[in-house]
Specification:
The complex is a heterodimer of chains A (238) and B (271). Chain A has 238 residues and is an all-alpha fold. Chain A has 7 helices and no strands. Chain A is elongated and about 70 Å long. Chain B has a domain of 187 residues: P-loop containing nucleotide triphosphate hydrolases (Rossmann fold), CATH 3.40.50. Chain B is built from 11 helices and 10 strands. The chains are: A mainly alpha (238), B alpha/beta (271). Chain A: This is Phosphate signaling complex protein PhoU.
């Protein structure tokens, strides 16, 4: 896209992109570290993630202020307007991803040493999948690659499917041994967090599609999360 | 008007053009000023009861086309218009058509307010009187008051209708010109940058007025302010170098235009 007649306008937009890239980098880093903390039960690493989250929060506020200022000063139109709106929305998704990563890090404290290691593996696998989704969608944003964004959007179903199986698995453990209810609940929330991160990545993908095409996504989301209707009875029927 | 042509409107046509009756239909219009080719093969459907905005850089032909709609270009000797422009299905360049009658049906408001150097009352009464719209003085008075009210000016001037129209402020003068235009009960109102000489408050008043008038009139406005086009119109047409580049629903043009030239112009990438 060619430059604006007013150069400062280009700088305003470039600044927003840079700040978003920073936020994306941090969110990715925190998520990766939270997964590692969980897998290795590394409480120090978990503390680091918890302490660093405020950086993302601060960046989001900054980005929002800049975006509002740009709207006020430039009265953006067409793609410029979409660019700014999308930046605000993606920033809010990234901020939420940061919060969820922080929450996972917090839970890694609570998950006791006594918990069988193999129980946590499914969860870390889910974490890595959500991290991959986040990485891919951020790449799609920096390269404004609509096709790649759509790929991320479609892949979310996989994360949902994994969540379903972990949900069932954890319920089974809890039924077998009530002493597992405590740690398993934490694992369950952790899994839910990864699933939510996948949803935020999907949101970002939808926004990239809107940015590039000017059209909102009309297709139904590939929702495969069935846990809201799963009951104990249905587990026993298996 | 039994010759009225109903153009089948394509699905790809702007939504507003499908929702409202067709008022002005232009087909393959070319306008020349001597050797200069000012408008190149322009076709457009302009809906009734809506505001259509023409935007584009200076010299793109938007005002030229606006002036072709009430045949104001006839007054320029070197100007030549070819193609077809119809209002309610009637060819306005038909030789048997009375141009004065045509212009009575089409009001025009200019960039600089141009009230007659007469009283406020006379400014509005002039048109209805010469066109014989009023049977008597009471009739005429009623037309003047109603027009001033519709133009949102009556309350401000009711105690000094005998004062000169030129004694009013710029924004009031422009509303006086709008009152003058609607006094002859036109069907179409053409506005050529009606707010470019006004301050933001007076501009807001005119925009509010345009929004009210669009219920009953077909309004075509030429504006250099993209924000104004976005605010007041339902249909937007983008002109560039004598070509009509893109026509669409205003909501689409300013959020997701289809043509790169439209995109570049409205985002301030060329001028």
């Amino acid at each position: 896209m060619s430059d604006h007649i007013v150069k400062a306008y280009d700088e305003d937009l470039a600044n927003l992109k840079t700040m978003l890239a920073q936020m994306g980098g941090l969110a990715e880093d925190h998520l990766a570290k939270a997964i590692e903390a969980l897998a290795r039960r590394d409480t120090k690493l978990a503390d680091y993630v918890i302490a660093q989250d405020e950086k993302i929060d601060a960046l989001e506020l900054q980005l929002e202020e800049r975006a509002i200022l740009t709207i006020a000063k430039r009265q953006p139109m067409a793609r410029d307007l979409r660019e700014i709106m999308v930046a605000i929305r993606i920033a809010s998704d990234l901020e939420r991803i940061g919060d969820l990563a922080k929450n996972i890090a917090k839970r890694s404290h609570a998950i006791s040493e006594a918990l069988p290691r193999k129980l946590a593996t499914g969860l870390t696998r889910m974490g890595r999948l959500s991290l991959e989704q986040l990485k891919d969608v951020l790449d799609a944003y920096t390269t404004t690659d609509d096709a790649k964004a759509l790929e991320v959007w479609r892949n979310d179903g996989e994360l949902d499917a994994l969540y379903n199986s972990i949900f069932r698995e954890l319920l089974t453990y809890m039924m077998e041994d009530p002493r597992m209810i405590g740690p398993c609940t934490h694992l369950l929330f952790g899994a839910k967090n990864f699933e939510r991160i996948g949803d935020h990545a999907t949101n970002i993908a939808e926004n990239i599609h809107y940015l590039v095409s000017g059209q909102t996504m009309r297709e139904e989301r590939p929702k495969k999360d069935t846990t809201s209707t799963t009951t104990f009875d249905s587990l026993n029927e298996r | 008007m039994d010759t009225m042509i109903k153009t089948p409107v394509a699905d790809s046509a702007p939504r507003i053009a499908r929702e409202r009756p067709l008022k002005i239909k232009a087909r393959n219009v070319d306008v020349y000023y001597g050797e200069k080719h000012a408008i190149n093969d322009l076709s457009i459907d302009i809906p009734d009861s809506a505001v259509s905005a023409f935007i584009g850089p200076s010299g793109c032909g938007k005002s030229t086309f606006l002036r072709s709609i009430n045949r104001m270009n006839d007054t320029i000797p070197s100007c030549r218009v070819t193609g077809n422009i119809e209002i309610d299905g009637r060819d306005i360049y038909d030789r048997t058509l009375d141009v004065v009658q045509l212009r009575a049906r089409i009001g025009m408001v200019f960039q600089k307010p141009n009230p007659f150097p007469k009283s406020i009352y006379e400014n509005v009464a002039y048109g209805p009187r010469i066109h014989g719209f009023a049977r008597n003085k009471t009739d005429l008075e009623e037309i003047v008051v109603t027009s001033l009210k519709k133009a949102g000016l009556f309350e401000e001037v009711k105690d000094r209708l005998d004062h000169s129209g030129t004694s009013l402020s710029g924004g009031q003068q422009q509303r006086l010109c709008i009152a003058r235009a609607i006094a002859v009960n036109p069907e179409v109102i053409l506005m050529d940058e009606p707010c470019s000489a006004l301050d933001p408050i007076a501009t807001a008043r005119i925009e509010e007025l345009i929004d009210e008038l669009r219920q009953n009139f077909c309004i075509v406005i030429v504006t250099h302010s993209m924000q104004q086009a976005a605010r007041v119109s339902q249909l937007t047409a983008f002109f560039h170098l004598g070509n009509l580049v893109e026509v669409g629903d205003t909501d689409d043009i300013f959020t997701a235009p289809k043509d790169k030239r439209t995109q570049d112009y409205i985002t301030g990438r060329f001028g």
